[in-house]
From TrEMBL, chain A:
This is Permease. It is a multi-pass membrane protein. InterPro entries: ABC3_permease_C, MacB_PCD, Macrolide_Exporter_MacB. One of its GO terms (molecular function) is transmembrane transporter activity. The keyword Membrane applies. Signal peptide: none annotated. Residues 21-238 form the MacB-like periplasmic core domain. It is found in: Cell membrane. It comes from [Actinomadura] parvosata subsp. kistnae. Keywords: Cell membrane, Membrane, Transmembrane, Transmembrane helix. One of its GO terms (cellular component) is plasma membrane. Pfam families: FtsX (PF02687), MacB_PCD (PF12704).
From TrEMBL, chain B:
Residues 223-243 are annotated as: Disordered. This is Macrolide ABC transporter ATP-binding protein. Residues 233-243 have a biased composition (Gly residues). PANTHER family: ABC TRANSPORTER ABCH.1, IMPORT ATP-BINDING PROTEIN. Gene3D superfamilies: P-loop containing nucleotide triphosphate hydrolases (3.40.50.300). Residues 9-243 form the ABC transporter domain. PROSITE patterns: ABC_TRANSPORTER_1, ABC_TRANSPORTER_2. Keywords: ATP-binding, Nucleotide-binding, Transport. InterPro entries: AAA+_ATPase, ABC_transporter-like_ATP-bd, ABC_transporter-like_CS, ABC_transpr_LolD-like, MacB-like_ATP-bd, P-loop_NTPase. It holds the Pfam family ABC_tran. One of its GO terms (molecular function) is ATP hydrolysis activity. GO terms for cellular component: membrane protein complex; plasma membrane. Residues 223-232 have a biased composition (Basic and acidic residues).
Length: 394, 243
């Protein structure tokens, strides 16, 4: 019996039991659908976060006190502005080092209030981070040196507080003190779920006085090229350790961040795929079950086929092909629905979803393998039926 | 009808034992038999006499516990399963009491089924199946399904299926058992004609003396043994058989 004959025979058998075939396939369809969609969401989330990290700027090194480990509470900072000056000398180019002192504060314009992240920083921020100014000007060196009460607003803050009005030159109250708006940043989106458009930047010196804090949270250093990142990180942390013997300092680079985030999200995607894979496996058990029922139901047919000259392997092939057709057709339908579903999710919701070819190949391969694996036992049972007994069966 | 070479069927001391719930059942206890090419024999006997078991052995559906069986000169005991299947496909045609047609399949495809396992192409299968159906007078029923046909027609489809592969031996197990007398007579007439024209050996199992009378040789079985065998002479048209 040729493969074509066997295929035609199996298709005919599936067609005859349309409803049962469809219901059996449903298990596989749902499994494959789940694999494709969940992997698409996992991959989409990873792509999105990588895009956000890259969107910060290029060749950035974040210098923070303590050792960075995932899940650990941030270390109490000991760094102050004197240390920033020290790092500037170590790096050599003062314009490539900036500072950050953050606090959540309420800001107010007239009766409109908003809770925002107030960041004390300096004129070098825009040299290091990708942070274009849409209106007005960024912070200047003079602002920092003379502790001016000036602020540059994130785009969302400007919208919330001033609406249609031009904020430049207007007053904004930050933590009870009045500031003059000198600039508004262009929209940059979010990083790690925090919108950078909800920030207000003020001179770090002003921030220290306003909030009563001497310590800074961290520094950012801009390397001149990708090859400079690692040597410069080592140089800066070594210099700080020399200044504070016994203390730890960490340099976080975008590459390291991307690596960590990538591996965490890769793991997440793997877990999602594995959960979806379990449902595919359950679908396979359903196929096995139905094939066993089918073999029992068609015992007389099997006996007859053997009497007419079907060999054991002809009967085995017939039932195995039926099982594999069930799972592969189910797999294809699941892939189509999964791709459609992922595209719909990406288009209609905030959830990022990006379809990966490997999830499709994997889902199809696994569904075919599930058909073979779960089809073999029923098919062998069919192939081994004794024709005399099978012909007598009712 | 001269037969040259090996007989169609040759059995020597065939025995078949079963284990039924741990109890040994001797269905056949040493049956020796020769059926020549083109012969027409009826195996008769009460139920439980072993005639169905013998039929299954002759049809290569089962293997004997002991004894030798040659079909068309081939010793079955040495054949692996796959070759046994091929022998069933090429040398033997089966007709069953309950027809055993595939219910969702047309007459034409039912008849063509054995040729699928012979590896023939679709067009040739269909041509041969059509010819076989025409030879049993069902040229007008090619695309009917079994449920759309009478019992007699269904059994004729089954006969067409048995002879589409041009076997040496046609085995019929109570071929008229499920038919009314009219349809039964039609079926028997076809078997008579096939035997006479085609030179195909026909062995049928029956309870029915009238059916058995079609055969030129009667083999009476009882308790797993041949009680009486008024052949293989040919020409004794069942005159001595009681009802």
């Amino acid at each position: 019996m040729s493969l074509r004959e066997a295929l035609a025979m199996a298709l005919e058998a599936l067609r005859v039991n349309r409803l049962r075939s469809a219901l059996t396939m449903l298990g596989v369809i749902i499994g494959v659908l789940a694999v494709v969609v969940l992997v698409a969401i996992g991959t989409g989330a990873k792509d999105e976060i990588e895009r956000q990290i890259s969107g910060l700027g290029t060749n950035i090194i974040l210098v923070v006190p303590g050792r960075i480990t995932l899940g650990a509470a941030p270390t109490q900072s000991k760094l102050g502005l004197a240390d920033v000056a020290y790092v500037r000398r170590v790096v050599g180019d003062p314009s490539k080092v900036t500072v950050s002192l953050q606090s959540g504060e309420t800001v107010r314009v007239g009766r409109t209030e908003a809770f925002v992240t107030v960041i004390g920083t300096d004129q070098n921020l825009v040299n290091i981070f990708e942070r274009p100014v849409a209106k007005g000007r960024p912070l200047s060196g003079t602002d920092v040196d003379t502790r001016r009460r000036v602020a540059v607003l994130g785009s969302e803050v400007a919208d919330r507080l001033f609406g249609e009005l031009d904020p430049i030159g207007r007053q904004v109250t930050v933590a009870g003190a009045r500031f003059r708006v000198v600039g508004v940043y262009a929209e940059v989106g979010q990083t790690f779920g925090l919108s950078r458009d909800q920030e207000i930047h003020i001179p770090v010196t002003t921030a220290q006085r306003l909030l009563g804090i001497e310590r800074i949270n961290g520094m950012a250093v801009g390397a001149s090229g990708p090859d400079e990142i690692d040597p410069l990180s080592d140089k800066v942390t070594a210099a700080l350790r020399e200044r504070y013997p016994g203390e730890q300092f960490s340099a976080v680079t975008q590459t390291a961040l991307l690596g960590t985030v990538g591996s965490v999200l890769g793991m997440l995607t793997g877990v999602l795929a594995a959960i979806a894979g379990i449902s595919l496996l359950v679908g396979g058990v359903g196929v096995s079950n139905i094939m066993l029922v089918s073999v029992r139901e068609r015992t007389r047919e099997i006996g007859l086929r053997k009497a007419l000259g079907a060999r054991q392997r002809d009967v085995l092939a017939q039932f195995l092909i039926e099982a594999v057709l069930l799972t592969t057709i189910g797999g294809l339908v699941g892939i189509v629905l999964g791709v459609g579903g992922s595209l719909a999710i990406a288009a209609l919701t905030e959830v990022p979803a990006s379809i990966t070819w490997w999830s499709i190949v994997l889902a199809f391969g696994v569904s075919a393998a599930v058909g073979v694996f779960f089809g073999v036992a029923p098919a062998r049972r069919a192939g081994r039926l004794d024709p005399v007994i099978a012909l007598r069966a009712e | 009808m001269t037969s040259g070479g090996a007989p169609a069927i040759e059995a020597v001391e065939l025995a078949r034992r079963y284990q039924l719930d741990g109890v040994a059942v001797e269905a056949l206890r040493g049956v020796s038999l020769r059926v020549g090419e083109g012969e027409f024999a009826a195996i008769v006997g009460p139920s439980g006499s072993g005639k169905s078991t013998l039929m299954h052995l002759l049809g290569c559906l089962d293997r004997p516990s002991s004894g030798v069986l040659r079909i068309n000169g081939v010793d079955l005991s040495r054949l692996p399963d796959a070759e046994l299947a091929e022998l069933r496909n090429r040398t033997i045609g089966f007709v069953f009491q309950s027809f055993h047609l595939l219910s969702r399949t047309t007459a034409l495809d039912n008849v063509a089924l054995p040729l699928v396992y012979r590896g023939l192409g679709r067009a040739e299968r269909r041509a041969r199946a059509r010819a076989a159906l025409e030879s049993v007078g069902l040229g007008h029923r090619l695309h009917h399904r079994p449920a759309q046909m009478s019992g007699g027609e269904q059994q004729r489809v089954a006969i067409a299926r048995a002879l589409v592969g041009e076997p040496k031996v046609l085995l019929a197990d109570e071929p008229t058992g499920n038919l009314d007398s009219g349809s039964g007579a039609e079926v028997m007439a076809i078997l008579d004609r096939l035997n006479a024209e085609g030179g195909m050996a026909v062995v049928l199992v029956t309870h029915d003396a009238e059916v058995a009378a079609h055969a030129r040789r009667q083999i009476h079985m009882r308790d797993g043994l041949i009680e009486r065998d008024d052949g293989p002479r040919g020409g004794t048209s069942g005159g001595g058989v009681r009802v």
